[in-house]
Design brief:
alpha/beta; two-stranded antiparallel ribbon; about 45% helix; about 20% strand; Arc Repressor Mutant, subunit A; about 290 residues
Length: about 290
């Protein structure tokens, strides 16, 4: 039988990154958290927490924390409507643009749950499921990941946009290959390939090295839009975020060709019942914003 107070201490340390923060969340002393973790490590016969700033979990530590998430979610699903139960923490992997455009209303519709969001590129969010670090993910990979259900959500449309002054200065003849190689772009981070994929698409997908423009890295969906408005560069912005800017002429499209990214909801199959309210909310919110699959 596992020691569930010790599991709760482990989960809070891994969620919050320190023994002190976990102690505050559980209303105990840091010494008590340390004793619980040490006892659990003795019981399991291995290290569960890599001490550092922040603290991180070993493979076994992450697996135990995930087990506690699932147990609490199952307990909530089994409890009577008026019964007191520990609020489950649901760890999800979501891409930043989905979070900025449609995911939050879905989470707000799920009362009685706490969410721990991992923000990662839609082409990589399924890796968190594969490693067992989240219960569900919004991902571009149709999958399914082993042990998961996969449901299509729709297409998030991206438009290559920049300020009118930027376009006049850098693209007087349109987004030619040479212009794209020289004009500063905006990328979210090193995983973001949307700009390169769009440049390849409008150039006919020709063979050869990809068009790799000089780029700013701005890891914020709202900051991405603001940077384009200010003329810092051009980038692939999600259409729901820039619709009003396009209508007002504050941003213009570099070319009429958009880039659509198909999104999917992948979630642990064995948690299908407890996650059903969240799955329904995710699908409903996606249908309000995304283009049909």
């Amino acid at each position: 039988m596992l020691d569930y107070p010790a599991l709760a201490a482990l989960a809070e340390v891994l969620r919050r990154g320190s023994f002190e923060a976990a102690a505050a969340a559980l209303h105990v002393t840091p010494s008590a958290i340390s004793q619980r973790i040490r006892a659990l490590e003795d019981r399991m016969g291995c290290v569960l927490v890599r001490r550092g700033t922040p603290c991180t979990g070993t493979e076994t530590g992450l697996r135990l924390a995930r087990h506690l998430q699932q147990v609490r979610l199952l307990e909530r699903d089994l409890a009577a409507p008026d019964a007191a139960a520990t609020t489950p923490v649901i760890r999800l992997a979501v891409n930043a643009d989905s979070l900025a455009t449609w995911v939050l209303p879905a989470l707000a519709a799920c009362a009685g749950m706490l969410f721990d969001l991992v923000i990662d590129d839609q082409d990589h969010s399924d890796d968190w499921l594969r490693r067992g670090e989240v219960l569900a993910a919004v991902t571009a990979a149709p999958g399914p990941v082993a042990g998961c259900d996969s449901l299509p959500l729709g297409r998030l449309r991206y438009i290559a946009t920049a300020s009118p002054a930027f376009v006049a200065r850098h693209f007087p003849d349109g987004p030619t290959a040479q212009a794209l190689m020289q004009a500063p772009a905006i990328t979210f981070n090193h995983k973001d390939r949307l700009q390169i994929d769009w440049a390849r698409q409008i150039s006919g997908g020709t063979a050869g090295p990809p068009i790799a423009p000089p780029t700013h890295q701005i890891a914020s969906s709202q900051g991405f839009v603001e940077a384009a408005l200010l003329g810092l560069g051009w980038g692939m912005n999600p259409e729901p975020l820039i619709r009003d800017h396009l209508a007002a002429g504050r941003l213009v499209a570099l070319a009429p060709a958009p880039l659509d990214v198909s999104l999917h909801w992948q979630a642990l199959r064995r948690m299908r019942g407890p996650l059903a309210p969240l799955t329904r909310a995710i699908r409903a919110a996606a249908a309000q914003v995304l283009l049909p699959p």
